Structure formats: structure tokens, C-alpha cells
Amino acid sequence: MSDLRPGETPATQRWSEVMYWPLTIAALLFLVTYTIHVTAQLTGIAAVVTLTIISITYVIFLVDYLARLVLSKPRGAWFRSHLAALGMVLVPALRPVRLLDTFTRIASFRRSAGATLRARLLIYGIGSALLLIWYISLLVLQFERHAPGATIDSFGDSVWWAFCTITTVGYGDYVPVTVPGRVAAVVLMAGGVVLVGLIVATISSSVVERVSHGNPRSDLHIPVPGRHHAEPKESTPSSASE
Q1: Does a structural domain hold residue 141?
Q2: For the segment 22-78, what is each residue's pLDDT rounded down to a tens digit?
Q3: Are residue 54 and residue 118 in the same domain, yes or no?
Q4: Which of 100, 178, 204, 213 has CA atoms 20 to 30 A from the CA of 142?
Q5: 238 lies in a domain?
């Protein structure tokens, strides 16, 4: 029971284990379907199909959230400690972040808890930055494509603009002209500052730990050609008595 978060019960934990892969697949399906829906400019039956799939992924996340809320006790404590799950239901852009949890499992082979934590933070940082760029690019393209005076009218232009914006380069060759597009740009700028700071802090922490603890393999004996290495002397009873 000590591994359970506030409000969680064995029933919520079992439900989470059962729904782990369905939710991961739903997150991937949402990202792929939304990408096709925006970039291909689907109409008619094809647009209905993609919108239906997107709606199904929404229902899956909603059912999962409500089921865990019902199984939790006390529900108020569970609600407060699972705001990220609520965010994935309300904000579709957050759903693909769930895919990163699968990649963070590669950190389990690390030796120390600190190294494992940094690896997970780095994966989440870089992964979140790429997902943010991808989703905002789609969102801005959807808003800007047919706007009067718009300069962002293709997915390639939108991705280029998103990379320039999140890295604070800002060439100015592509600029959103619609209000929703500019709101998305502000979100990208704010998210970029946070994510870049997280990545830099994680790398800096790793470098500081390596320097402070020295080379972890410095105790190994590495022979150098042309140099005589004295063998360590073993203590003898006579030398010990002296």
C-alpha cells in the first residue's frame, strides 16, 4: 500500500495496469489521425472517419478517468493528485505525452537513482519538446492555412516556424496572423522556455555529479605502453611487526 498515491486503491491500480496499453495505443492513434486530418485536408467521408477516430480516443480517456475516480478512495485526494490525467481528457494535445512513459522504461537499467531520474527527465524534456512542436505546427496550420495574408500555408512551413519559435531564433519569415494562431504561438514560446530549461538543468546536473564524484572507473588498472608499473607490495608478518 505504500506505493499507492493519495486516493489510490488496489482496484485503481489494477485498472491502471489493464488500461496502460489501450491508453498508449489511443494516444498514438490520436496523434497519427489528427496529423492526417490536418495535413491531407480531408473532406467528406474521409474527414468523418478521422473525426470519429479522434472522438473515440477522447471517449477512451474519459472512461478511464471516470473509472479510476469511481474506484478511488477518498476521491478528493485522488482528484488532487491526478490533475495530469484530467488534463489529458480536457486538452487533446497532452494525450501523446503518455507515449513518453513507454520510452522512460529504458532508464531502469541505470545504476543509481539519480541517473535514472535524470534519464527520465531528459526523455520527457526532449520528447515533450518534439511533441509540442508537432502539435502546435498542426494547430497553427489549421488556423492559418486559409486566412487572408497568411504566410504559413503548408505543414513544412509550419514545422519550420515552430522550430524557429521554440529555439527563440525567430527569423520572422513566417508569422501567424490569426488570433488563435498567435495564442498557439504564445503557448509554444512559454513551453519552449520551460522545456529547454529542463533539458539544460538535467545535463548540467549530470556533468556536476560526474565531476564531483570523479571517474567511476578510475580504480581500474590501465597499463600504458613504455611505462613501468610497480606492483602493490603485500604486507608480510615481519614488516607488520616492524
Answers
A1: yes
A2: 998 999 999 999 999 999 999 999 999 999 999 999 999 999 999 999 999 999 999
A3: no
A4: 100
A5: no
191: domain CATH number is: 1.10.287.70
CA 92/CA 142 separation, integer angstroms = 15
Q: How confident is the model at residue 203 (pLDDT cuts 50, 70, 90)?
A: low
- 78 and 122, same domain (yes or no): no
Domain assignment of residue 233, yes or no = no
Residues 82 and 66: beta-carbon distance below 8 Å: no
Q: Is the peptide bond before 6 cis (omega within 30 degrees of 0)?
A: no
Total of domains in the chain: 2
- Can you give the pTM of this predicted structure? 0.74
pLDDT at 108: 53
Rounded to whole angstroms, how far apart are CA atoms 153 and 128?
Answer: 25
Kindly state whether residue 217 falls inside one of the protein's structural domains: no
Give the residue-averaged pLDDT of 137-164. Answer: 93
Percent of the chain's residues with pLDDT above 90: 45
Range of the domain at 129: 110-212
Length of the chain (residues) = 242
Res 209: pLDDT: 63
Are the C-beta atoms of 4 and 17 separated by less than 8 Å?
Answer: no
Helices (H), ranges, the chain: 10-39, 44-71, 75-81, 83-90, 99-103, 113-144, 155-166, 179-213, 237-241
Give the residue carrying C-alpha cell 492526417: 36
